[in-house]
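Please fill in the sequence for the structure shown.

STRUCTURE ENCODING:
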């Protein structure tokens, strides 16, 4: 049997992922619509009360109004927790929809092109993807500075560093998935829960772009001169981050306005803050991810942990 026929023989069409993805997509849409019409509408009402409570607390602090500062601060904390809890179901539903779309797309590919039998490289890549997913979560959840804007927030963080690093080490699909899952979990478990669906989409796109430039175009995982590797690494990181600098505020505006019904004046403030924080995060990610990748590359080759793409 020829080598080509042997490879074709090893591939097997699979419909399981397509069925699961389609089922989850339908369930996610139904759940998201239900959550939007119930708990999320209640969170909007809680958000209005929260804004009023914050304004009252601020007025008392500045001496322009009378009241009990401790009671007002306690009310702000209570309403913040209540609003966050009411927002979670809708955010979970949208995240499930976005994740199901990815599963369905991968399922369609498996059903048409077929899948190969898993080998040692696949297991190595899966293991590293799990580690980098955890690092993306840690980089966002524990190394960030919050910037409030009304009842919403933006932040400086290190999550993008590991999102880009994952794509450099594992390629666009696995790297993007590691960044998307890790940082989405970070959103879902913090006060950024309403940003989780947007985060999943954008971080996946960052990984795909970095992977395409690094491995699809310039074949970074192959043997090259140090100068070539350095140049391609920085270029790939920069391409992914330029996309994020443009897409994050733009997508965020339509996302917050039309999917979550955030008032346009607050959304406009968020877009300006997001543009600033995203730009700073991008510069940090390009520098840090490039340094870490260039340091890890020779060490991982020697340890037989480097994945050839």
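FILLED IN BY: designer on duty
SEQUENCE:
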């Amino acid at each position: 049997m020829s080598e080509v026929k042997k490879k074709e023989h090893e591939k097997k069409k699979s419909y399981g992922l397509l069925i699961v993805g389609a089922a989850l997509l339908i369930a996610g849409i139904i759940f998201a619509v239900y959550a939007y019409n119930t708990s999320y509408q209640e969170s909007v009402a809680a958000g209005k009360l929260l804004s009023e409570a914050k304004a009252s607390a601020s007025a008392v602090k500045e001496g322009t109004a009378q009241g009990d500062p401790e009671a007002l601060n306690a009310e702000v904390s209570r309403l913040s927790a209540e609003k966050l809890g009411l927002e979670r179901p809708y955010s979970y539903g949208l995240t499930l929809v976005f994740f199901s779309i990815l599963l369905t797309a991968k399922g369609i590919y498996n059903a048409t092109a077929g899948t190969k039998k898993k080998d040692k490289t696949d297991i190595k890549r899966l293991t590293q993807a799990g580690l980098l997913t955890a690092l993306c979560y840690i980089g966002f959840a524990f190394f960030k500075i919050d910037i409030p804007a009304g009842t919403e927030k933006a932040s400086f963080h290190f999550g993008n560093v590991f999102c880009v690093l994952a794509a450099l080490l594992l390629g666009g699909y696995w790297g993007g998935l590691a960044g998307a899952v890790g940082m989405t979990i970070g959103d879902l478990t913090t006060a950024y829960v309403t940003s989780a669906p947007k985060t999943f989409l954008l971080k996946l796109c960052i990984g795909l772009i970095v992977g395409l430039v690094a491995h699809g175009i310039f074949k970074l995982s192959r043997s090259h001169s140090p100068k070539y590797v350095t140049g391609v690494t920085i270029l790939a990181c920069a391409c992914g981050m330029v996309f994020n600098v443009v897409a994050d505020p733009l997508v965020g505006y339509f996302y917050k306005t039309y999917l979550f019904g955030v008032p346009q004046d607050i959304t406009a403030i968020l877009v300006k803050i997001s543009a600033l924080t995203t730009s700073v995060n991008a510069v940090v990610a390009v520098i840090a991810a490039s340094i870490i990748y260039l340091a890890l590359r020779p060490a991982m080759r020697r340890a037989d942990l480097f994945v050839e793409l």
